[in-house]
Amino acid sequence: MLLTWIAEVADEPLALEPDDRPVEWETNTWRLSTDDAERRALSVREVVAAFEETADRIRRRIRERGFAGVATFYVWHDEQAGQLRCSTGSVPADRLPFGAAYLPVDDLGPIVEGYLRDEEPGLVPWASLVTVTDRSALDEPEPGFPPFPVWVRGVGAAPVPRPGEQPPVA
User: Fold this and answer.
1) Are 82 and 127 in contact (CB under 8 A)?
2) CA distance 92 to 3
């Protein structure tokens, strides 16, 4: 089911609202998980391929819509919730809406491997999680925590360099 859910992300509603980040976050963020048996049966390679295909399909959708700006599709492992999460935002990879330090990466394999090999997914009970309604407080990373890896892909019409690459010279 996880591979199916990853593929379905590309067909879900997509909001590109540079002036309304909360709408983007609510519309474009997906929380994906699976049971232990499927987790053990999946390979890193097939999950990575599913996300790469989803990023390509989102890129095509965005270009078909005529959106001319920057957009990034990104994936991370939320260890506390025991989930893979993905989202799309009209921001470059270095401006993603996280309230903690993160590191944009080009290799999704280690993120997926961490999720698939997590023996105790979801260390925090759902009842203890708090829904954030005011995302403005999340603009500044919380000090003291090491950055977590986030796989990024530019999916907008404006060129976006991959992590470690220099931006294109105009």
Assistant:
1) no
2) 26
* Integer Cα distance of 131 and 26 in angstroms: 11
Compute the distance between CA of residue 22 and CA of residue 133 in angstroms, rounded to an integer. Answer: 9
CA dist., res. 37 & res. 34, Å (int): 8
Q: Tokens representing 161?
A: 């360099």
Model confidence over 96-144: pLDDT tens digits? 999 889 999 999 999 999 999 987 766 655 565 556 555 555 555 455 6
Task: Please count the helices (runs of H) and the strands (runs of E) in the chain.
Answer: 5, 5
CB neighbour list of residue 79: distance below 8 Å, 6 or more residues apart:
114, 118, 121, 123
**Which one, of 7, 108, 10, 16, lies nearest residue 59 by Cα?**
10
Q: Answer whether residue 53 shows pLDDT above 50.
A: yes
Contacts with 45 (C-beta within 8 Å, 6 or more apart), sequence order: 109
Q: How many residues does the chain have?
A: 170
How far is it, in rounded angstroms, from Cα 8 to Cα 51?
A: 10
Residue bearing tokens 């049966």 = 41
CA-based angle 73:42:36, to the nearest 5?
105
